[in-house]
Amino acid sequence: MTDLAPPPPITDAERAARLSKLRLAMEDAGVAGVLLGSSESLRYFTGLVWHASERLLGALVTAEALTYIVPAFEESRVETLPHLPGRIAVWQEEESPSALIATLLAPAGRLALDEALPLFVYHALSATLGPERLVDGGPLIGPLRAVKSPTEIAIIRYAMGLTLEVHRRAHAMLEPGIRASDVVRFIDAEHRRLAGRGSTFCIVSFGAATALPHGAEGDQVLAPGDAILVDTGTRIDGYHSDLTRSYMLDEPEPDYAAAWAVERAAQQAVFEAARLGTPCHALDDAARMVLLKNGLGPDYRLPGLPHRAGHGLGLEIHEAPYIVRGNRTPLMAGHCFSNEPMLVHPNRFGIRLEDHIYMAEDGPHWFTPPCESPTRPFG
């Protein structure tokens, strides 16, 4: 069992500091406001959690104010939910939330849009304000969210530790004849037992299905000598865990053991390439170099690595920074990302060892210890 203590939650003081940073970015970009939708960015800056629908509910951030844009009949519900203090501006069913936003924005001021806003909101705002006043808010929001605070890192570390323990328990109950669906249910129940909520996702694959990065349709039954791939995670205070283990219950055939060693070497190469200031693409390059030296690839050719080597993680399971070819974003202290240069041998097996890294002032750190061998997935 993990010995990690539950971390403290994100405070309103931290969210207020995030808003201050956003307002500085707004000033530098020359925008009068940022419109947040019912997205993880709304949660990040204000603490308000709301699921998107056909009605716009969000928040307008200006230099002077934080204003929640809310359907009138939902006002009482919003008032009961945790959120930073701010005015609640309502719109009735026959009214236009875009018109309401226009009254709150400086005349002729440009509005930066949360990139998670749906297209119908963009079209309505474009008709009301004019498309020339609308700009992409992603470059303002994304870099702020990508750099995690010590509190965020502590929450993610705790979530990863819980999921690693769930992996250990799943490994201990596996035996030939078990169905993948039974393992999925077991993992969900163990996440609920340890984390207080179930799995956010779970992929359990056996045999040739392990070569499919996101799993196969239908149920599978574990046969003796099958390769096993388990990828799962949960959320703590909104922050994701995401861990994959690939292994066999008994000593593997030489070809699987050799491929597993290549996969582990590629994962280690990513870790060793992760240095402050290094562009993200260099980590993907490092993984592919290991595969190339072992006669795999090149590029996305199979057998080899068919996708990027990693993705950022936080309030979304896939977010910046992406560890992918062409991404010149330099690594910074606070960046958190997966390390998963999956090795695929089509129609035979796939091996994905996924752990996550966070960058500190002294370089990279593992959230969870990497695997030791094809039969010792937990060290």
Verbal overview:
The protein has 379 residues and is an alpha+beta fold. The chain has ten helices and 18 strands. The strands form six sheets. Strands 4-3-2-1-5-6 form a six-stranded mixed sheet. A three-stranded antiparallel sheet has the order 7-8-11, covered by helices on one side. Helix 5 links the parallel strand 5 and strand 6.
CATH class designation of the largest domain: Alpha Beta
Average pLDDT number: 97
> What class, by secondary structure content?
alpha+beta
CATH topology label of the largest domain: Creatine Amidinohydrolase
Radius of gyration: 23 Å
The coarse overall form would be elongated
* Low-confidence region ranges: none
Q: Compute the number of helices.
A: 10
Provide the β-strand percentage band.
15-25%
Query: What string, H for helix and E for strand, traces the elements in order?
Result: HEHEEHEHEHEHHHEEEEEHHEEEEEEE
Describe the structure using short key phrases.
single chain, 379 residues, alpha+beta, Creatine Amidinohydrolase, Chain A, domain 1, Creatine Amidinohydrolase, 2 domains, six-stranded mixed sheet, three-stranded antiparallel sheet, 18 strands, elongated
What's this entry about, in short?
With 379 residues, the protein is of the alpha+beta class. 35% of the residues lie in helices and 20% in strands. Strand 12 and strand 13 form a beta hairpin.
